[in-house]
Design a protein that fits this description.
The protein is mainly beta. Helices cover 12% and strands 41% of the residues. Strand 3 and strand 4 form a beta hairpin. The longest helix has 14 residues.
């Protein structure tokens, strides 16, 4: 009986570190660009983007995948607003050099999506 309890305890402890390694980051998308003066961004409801962003804290990487035929650039900024990672395409893995707060910006031709890692 005790051997079963100990074996179960070891099995649970072996699985626990695997849980929570990857976190899905919600991305909010909006039409237009904030830096365009002739077409300012209007306050609208967020658009649904077919983009999934996953943060792996163990490997210190951000994986961006898009299921649609969208083109866009991915930039990652740290807590000091310095660019820490960049990819010219949507489906990419971006390595990070530090832990903590990061802002993810995905920018297309007429839309922009943002997400935060805390």
């Amino acid at each position: 009986m005790i051997k079963r309890i100990i074996a179960t305890l070891f099995a649970v402890l072996a699985v626990l570190p695997a849980v929570g390694e990857k976190t899905t980051i919600p991305i909010k998308g909006y039409k237009g660009h904030a830096d365009k003066v002739d077409q300012p961004v209007k306050h609208r409801n967020p658009m649904l983007l077919p983009v999934e962003v996953t943060y792996d804290d163990e490997a210190m990487t951000i994986e961006v995948s898009c299921t649609a035929d969208l083109e866009g650039e991915v930039s990652v900024y740290d807590s000091h607003d310095e660019m820490e990672g960049y990819s010219p395409c949507m489906n990419s893995i971006i390595p990070l050099t530090s832990y903590g707060y990061h802002i993810i910006v995905i920018e297309g031709d007429d839309w922009i999506g943002t997400g935060v890692i805390e």
